[in-house]
Each structure stands twice: as structure tokens, then as C-alpha cells.
Design a protein that fits this description.
Layout: H1 13-20, H2 23-29, E1 81-83, E2 90-93, E3 101-106, H3 113-122, E4 131-133, E5 139-141, E6 147-149, H4 159-163, E7 192-197, H5 208-225, E8 230-233, H6 234-237, H7 249-258
Domain N-acetylmuramoyl-L-alanine amidase: 91-245
InterPro entries: Amidase/PGRP_sf (IPR036505), Amidase_domain (IPR002502), NAMLAA_amidase_2 (IPR051206)
Catalytic activity: Hydrolyzes the link between N-acetylmuramoyl residues and L-amino acid residues in certain cell-wall glycopeptides
Length: 262
């Protein structure tokens, strides 16, 4: 879940509001309480993807916010992704050379994707994942693939090095603050795409339609960038997170191994 970091749904509103009050609260709660990870606030532009990697020489060029890209790669029609772009969720450019990971989350709620996105937009935290997948397999996208979304938040100290990430200033971090010495690394947002699955941990398996939609979405993201991003779940980035849940562990292994749930 974004929690204050993203994964969150309307029915979690009261708990989340409390959790949002203070980063200190979240740090104290770790690791055994709130599934809501705390985090950011802010806003930015709305640009988009460039599939042109021909100029990727290995030297990362930090894009200028004034450099508007055009979102030119439509999703395959069989995926039927609902575009529900919310510019306030974008935290600067993340063009293809910065893509390394797909981070999977659970919403820890039952609300459909549209309601989840509305909730993110209304709670003032400006935290969101790029995509939300409902139990029926419906997919909504609220952040373009070439823009940074705040979905992963702070990770365990040392995880930037573990995951090969650098904090290079592309992620503005506005509204965020460290949540404790145990989780002070902040590189993942700027190098990843976030996907939320509507699911509550401990409440049963993920429906086949939802898993099949995730299969298709991962294939689309792979195709979009032209390479396979590494697939992890949110708790790999920050230990103590609840997502993804135990019910997903076998699927996660499959995704990491062959890009599908089975
Ligand atoms: Zn999460």
C-alpha cells in the first residue's frame, strides 16, 4: 500500500488521516502497527514518455522540467486502461533511461480503482501509484509512465545501494520527510513504476481476472520501455510494509521469474 506513501483507499481514510499527522508517528509505529507508510506531498508538471533511448549513452542526463515529452505509446486495446491522469500526482520527469523497477502494492481496501484515485486526490498527500488494478481486472492509470509518482517513499537505510539507485534530485521530495534512521533512503520513486492491486492482506486470494490484468500490464510496461524491469513488492523496498500480502508470494516469484502469475 502506498499509505501515506500511496497505497490507500477511501475506507482507510480515518486511519490514514491519523497516520498522516506526523511522520514521527509512523516511525514510532514501525514495524508492527499501521500498514500505512508515511510520506509525501507535492505536485508538479505533466509531461510524458519518450521511447527514444538512442541517446542513452550511459551518462544520465537530468531532464529539465521545461522539456515536455509527448505521451506517444498507447496501451494495447485489449488492456483497456482507463486514463484518469491527475497532474498533481506527478513529481517531475522520469524518462526511460531512469526506469529500473516495477513496484507492486496492495491497497488494503476494497474500493475500485476510480475511487482509490479519487481518494488519493482528495486526501492532500499527492501520493499515488501509476496504475491501480481492480479485482475485476479493470485498470486505471493516474500518472504517465515517464513521470515520477510518489508510491514507494522512504526505504530501509542502505536500500539505495542494494537496489542500485541514486538520489539525483529528479524527485522533488516535496512534502516528504525522513521517517526514521532505519528508513532514510529515497531513491525508488524516481526509478520505478508503481502498481496498486485492490486487495486486503489476509482476506483471500487474488482473483484470476486481476492477475491476468497484471500479466497484461507488465507486458505493456516491458514493451513500452523495450526491456524488462525488475519486479519487486513494496515491502522489499521498505521492510515492515504489509504489501504485497502473503497470498501474493507465489505470484511474485512467478513474476520475477517469467513475468506472469502462473
Ligand atoms: Zn505500498
Amino acid at each position: 500500500m502506498l499509505g501515506i506513501d500511496g497505497c490507500t483507499s477511501p475506507e482507510n481514510q480515518s486511519e490514514l488521516s491519523e497516520a498522516i499527522q506526523s511522520d514521527a508517528i509512523e516511525a514510532e509505529e514501525y514495524p508492527d502497527s499501521s500498514p500505512f507508510d508515511a510520506e509525501p506531498k507535492e505536485q508538479e508538471i505533466d509531461q510524458e514518455p519518450s521511447l527514444d533511448r538512442s541517446s542513452d549513452t550511459g551518462d544520465l542526463d537530468i531532464p529539465d522540467d521545461s522539456e515536455k515529452l509527448s505521451y506517444s505509446e498507447p496501451a494495447p486495446s485489449d488492456l483497456a486502461i482507463v486514463q484518469d491522469i491527475r497532474p498533481s500526482f506527478s513529481h517531475r520527469l522520469k524518462s526511460a533511461e531512469y526506469q529500473k523497477y516495477i513496484v507492486l502494492h496492495d491497497t488494503e481496501g476494497d474500493s475500485d480503482p476510480a475511487s482509490v484515485i479519487d481518494w488519493w486526490d482528495s486526501n492532500g498527500n499527492l501520493v499515488a501509484a501509476h496504475f491501480v488494478i481492480g479485482k475485476d481486472g479493470s485498470i486505471s492509470q493516474c500518472v504517465p509512465l515517464d513521470e515520477i509518482a510518489h508510491h514507494a517513499g522512504y526505504g530501509d537505510t542502505g536500500h539505495n545501494e542494494k537496489y542500485g539507485l541514486i538520489e539525483d534530485g529528479r524527485d522533488d521530495m516535496e512534502g516528504s520527510s525522513p521517517i526514521g534512521s532505519w528508513a532514510s533512503d529515497y531513491g525508488m520513486n524516481a526509478w520505478s513504476v508503481g502498481i496498486e492491486l485492490v486487495h486486503r492482506g489476509g482476506e483471500g486470494d487474488y482473483p484470476a481476472a486481476q492477475l491476468e490484468a497484471l500479466d497484461g500490464l507488465i507486458a505493456y510496461i516491458d514493451s513500452y520501455y523495450g526491456f524488462e524491469s525488475e519486479i519487486i513488492d513494496h515491502k522489499a523496498w521498505r521492510s515492515g510494509n504489509s504489501d504485497t500480502s502473503e497470498e501474493f508470494s507465489a505470484y511474485l516469484e512467478n513474476y520475477q521469474d517469467h513475468r506472469r502469475h502462473n
